[in-house]
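Thread title: Can someone regenerate the structure for this chain?

I was given the following input by a collaborator and told the matching structure tokens would be attached. They weren't. Posting the sequence so someone can regenerate them.
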Amino acid sequence: MKKLLVYIKDYKKESILAPVFKLLEATFELLVPLVMAAIIDVGIPRGDTGYIVRMCLLIAALGAVGLISTVIAQYFAAKAAAGFAKNLKHALFSHIQRFSYSELDTLGTSTIITRMTSDANQVQTGVNLTLRLLLRSPFVVFGAMIMAFTVDSQAALVFVGVIPILALVVFGIMLWCIPRYKTVQAKLDRVLGITRENLTGVRVIRAFCKEEEEVSEFERRNEELASMQKFVGKVSSLLNPATYAIINIAIALLIWIGAIRVDAGLLTQGAVVALYNYMSQILVELIKLANLIITINRSIASGNRIQEVFEIQPVTNDKGDVQSALPSADTEYAVEFKNAGLRYKNAGGNALTGVDFAVNKGQVVGIIGGTGSGKTSLVNLIPRFYDATEGEVLVGGVDVKDYPAKELRAKIGVVPQKAVLFSGSIHDNMRWGQKDATDDEILEALSAAQGMDIVKRHGGLDYTIEQGGKNLSGGQRQRLTIARALVRRPEILILDDSSSALDFATDAALRKALRDLPGNPTVFIVSQRASSVQHADKIVVLEDGRVAGVGKSEELLETCEVYRQIYDSQFRKEGRLDVG
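Best answer:
Regenerated them for you:
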């Protein structure tokens, strides 16, 4: 948690002024009992109305100045806390953006969302209350004790006895609660995870009539969370009654001692009232401190969870620089796999093993194989979404691990399996590929991706796309995501089964357009359709994470049993040898 405080450095002035003004307000508050004692001991016995009025005006003035001070303190504390949260969330989001798929798979989406929202907001609340109360409450507690000694040292000994007992109760409960609050947040992760699964997979759940099972599972997880929260809440709730009981016992003792000393003529009635007020101030401040500690406990637990994310270092950390990563001018290969292998974290075996082939610049390469054969894993090694755990992957003659990630991915356009679009216009989505792309460049990319009919049908590039492209069909989403990658004019284009929703005619037109792209990029087409890859310059056939064959379609029909089975299952059984 302490490491996160670096994000408040831009608000040092506010972080200092907030507690200073709070201490100023507390100082004025500590003077009020003395003024009250003066009214009781001097003004009332003498019947001096003018003196009483002056003292009352002084109390009002102290209250007004205290109010102004606390408003200023609230402003600075809120500004510092909000600024701290802004910097923290920006840093956390930037850190997460550096993660490879491996770290994202390990953490999980629901956990990341919880830590960026609920946990970050909890830490913000903790910082706000800490700036306002962490110094003020102890200052009032010890200040009231010191002021009590100025009134009567004998009666003030009650304060000396009660404060350590209160501190023991408060901090004992705090130390017990901190690890439990962390458990509560972990259970909240699980509830959010199952909620996300149910919402995203609601159609599948209904299709298999699993509503009752999922509701039961959600209720079970929710009950676990609620039970843990209630358990921690019950212990935390002991703070208020425990402090009330101790303080009220102390007040009773104080009044008893005060009455004896007043009767003996050693203490005035006003002094007893002042001592009572100081004890009441201690009660109020300790209640505030108890609630503050509860909030700080939760903030520390949340802060530690956020810190855990910061401590995860991406597997794909950059170790190169722009100059050393410049592609070799004399290499003829765009991409080379040299005995490359990949094992996912905590996996029992390799997803890829011994992948060894090279791709010339400008070639169209088809990647084909059965489900789970490693096609997507293979192309994910090129932009370093995962790092090869064995062997090497080279782009332009340079190991991808020697590239800065930004420099490497600037050369590559990726169209993933799931077509993802963002809320906004078509124009806005296309500029994800290149932020300064002109309308002509966007239209050119849309034309190559066979997406011009989408623009014409919806009235132009300003047509608004809903989140996730929900107002478009699957084929339309795929064509727009392909166009978005083409806007970048990449040196390497990866189409990861991104035309599965397209009809055969559109798919064929797309493949023809890819060969005529300006700049002659190297294209990787991942597909389970033999028709999508059969005219590629080179086809790589995968089976169980290994290369079963490399060559043109005609060669593989003669030499590769895996490719021949895929081809036959799609064409020859239907009496067709080719679909163009």
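The first helix runs from residue 12 to 46.
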